[in-house]
Amino acid sequence: MVAHDPPASADWAARPRYAPSDFITLLWRERYLMISVFLLIFIAGLGFAFTLKKAYPAHSSLLIQLGQEYVYEPLAGDAARGAVPDVNSVVQSETAILSSEPLREMTIRKVGLGIIYPDLAAKYDAASVQEKQAIMAKAVEGMGKGLKIEAAPDNPVVNLTFEHEDPVVAARVLNTLLEQYLLYRRSVLAQPSSTALDRQRVMFQGKLDEADAAYQQFLVTNDIGDFNAQKTSLTQLQAQAEAQSNAVQAQLQDRQGRLAALQQQMAGVQPEIGLYRDTDTTASAKLAALKLEREDKLGRYLPDSQTIKDIDAQIAQLEQGVQAGRTLTEGPKRYGVNPVYQTAQTEQIQLTAEVAALRQSKAEYDRQVQEANDRLLKLVALEPQFQALSRDRDLLQTNVRDYSVKATQDEAVRQIASESSDNIRIVERASAPSTGKSLRKPVMILALLFAGFAALCAGLVRMFLRPGLPTAASASRTLDLPILGMASVKPR
Predict the structure, then answer these.
(1) pLDDT tens across 294-318, in order?
(2) Backbone φ and ψ of 161, nearest 5°
(3) 3-state SS class at 427
(4) Number of C-beta neighbours around residue 150 at 10 A
(5) DSSP-assigned letter for residue 471
(6) What stretches pass through the bilayer (predicted)?
(7) Same domain, 70 and 16
(8) Mean pLDDT of the chain
(9) Is the CB of residue 473 less than 8 Å from the CB of residue 37?
(10) Which of 189, 218, 245 is the last residue of a domain?
(11) What are the pLDDT digits (tens) for 74-133?
């Protein structure tokens, strides 16, 4: 026989052994404890579940696309200009803005703390400045718990949900959140960089003024109007003067050669020549007179008369003299200036004047070439300094112009961004939900499950903590002895 409760003085070293069938019997013994624990926990869970209020979720969605504010514009240089992020990065950025605490606080102040959280509003009115900050932080935190933002990868649509006890307030808060978001994101993404650009522009403008002063002082000191134009003009002038000098040199050599040849030719030319010479025609006239006289006397004398014969003899004698040239004598002669000599002398005078003029022109052109060359050598010596001043001046002008353009563009981008948000589209505005959600049923189910589990654990703990061998089968397995009989223990 085995008793349920052995004496306290007995030394039970053996550990009870249980079978699955023993658990049912032993747990049934602890049913009152398990029912008490179950009812206590389940009733507490039901009480908590009935305290939960129904919440109405308002839904809205946004379509987020790439905008101008995400295009990278460096403040200096052109490195990575125009780089844009991917869709996921843009959506994550906009989601972070949507879930930011400043945006929720702006929404609460826009709608009104008393409308969203009346309990906190009552405390807020009578609180101090520090307490008001704490209450507002609590309201912002509470709104964050009720706000749910969902975004899927590679999807530009963002879904927003806000839960509140009042469906109208839930829709109003969510719509106000979207409106404030469109304003708030502009101040976040389009931060004005014109201040930094203006500082840089003013700094470079000061340096440019100094460079301009040094540049102008350099020009005034060296008597230069336009360095490049003057250098080009001097180069052209030098080239023209050299060309003209060479041309004059060629003309001078030609004139000198002609003058030397003319002077050599004039040595063999007489300055004066005979212009004409008269011939004595007395014999011819006398012969003609004799012939006229013969013809006249033939009218009075016969041809064979002595008179006629005398005249014929005279005529014959005179003709023989004329034919023989014995009757020719030199007449008066006239001399004058030789025209060839006069022409040569005139040409000599002209060539001598041309040679003198060409020599003077050659000397003048040589002087101009030398003067231009000296000026060019001076400009060449000054060119490194001029190039350095011009390079600094041009670089500063470029920087001032670039920063002015960037500041203008930045201002234009900020104005455009402040007036429109074309890359953000509200796909669906929130409307007052007709059905609400409550956690009463899930809490009741959880309370039921937890109460059952706690009751089972309490029964198991109580079962294992009871002393002795609880059943005959357990005693037989523990002592490895057969049980012949069992008697119940009567209470003392």
Answers:
(1) 777 777 777 788 877 778 788 887 7
(2) -135, 135
(3) strand
(4) 12
(5) S
(6) 32-52, 443-465
(7) no
(8) 76
(9) no
(10) 189
(11) 655 555 555 666 778 888 888 888 888 888 889 988 888 888 888 888 888 888 888 888
Tell me the residue type at 394.
D
Q: Decide if 446 is inside a domain.
A: no
- Give the residue carrying structure tokens 């009871």: 466
Question: Hey, what long-range contacts does 99-104 have (CB within 8 A, 24 or more apart)?
Answer: 99/144, 99/147, 99/149, 100/184, 101/140, 101/144, 102/184, 103/177, 103/180, 103/181, 103/184, 104/140, 104/143, 104/144, 104/147, 104/177
Q: Which of 189, 213, 233 is the last residue of a domain?
A: 189
The 3-state secondary structure of 164-229, one letter per residue: ECCHHHHHHHHHHHHHHHHHHHHHHHCCCCHHHHHHHHHHHHHHHHHHHHHHHHHHHHCCCCCHHH
Are 182 and 138 in the same domain? yes
> Whole-prediction pTM value?
0.46
Q: Find, among 164, 165, 192, 191, the residue nearest to 97 by Cα.
A: 191
Pairing of strands 272-279, 157-164: unpaired
Overall domain count for the chain: 2
Which pair of tokens denotes residue 70? Answer: 């995400």
DSSP state of 158: E
User: What is the amino acid identity at position 445?
Assistant: I
For residues 411 and 195, is the Cβ–Cβ distance under 8 A?
no
- Residue 321 in this model has a pLDDT that exceeds 60: yes
pLDDT band at 15 (very low <50, low <70, confident <90, very high): low
44 plus 87 within the same structural domain = no
Quick one: 48 and 106 in the same domain?
no
Q: Is residue 371 part of a domain?
A: no
Q: Does 8 share its domain with 129?
A: no
Determine, yes or no, domain membership for 489. Answer: yes
Domain that holds residue 469: 1-52+457-492
Place of tokens 């992020």: 85
Q: 42 with 74, same domain? A: no
**Percent of all residues in the chain with a pLDDT value above 90, rounded to a whole number:** 0
Nearest Cα to Cα of residue 23 among 451, 454, 449, 459:
459
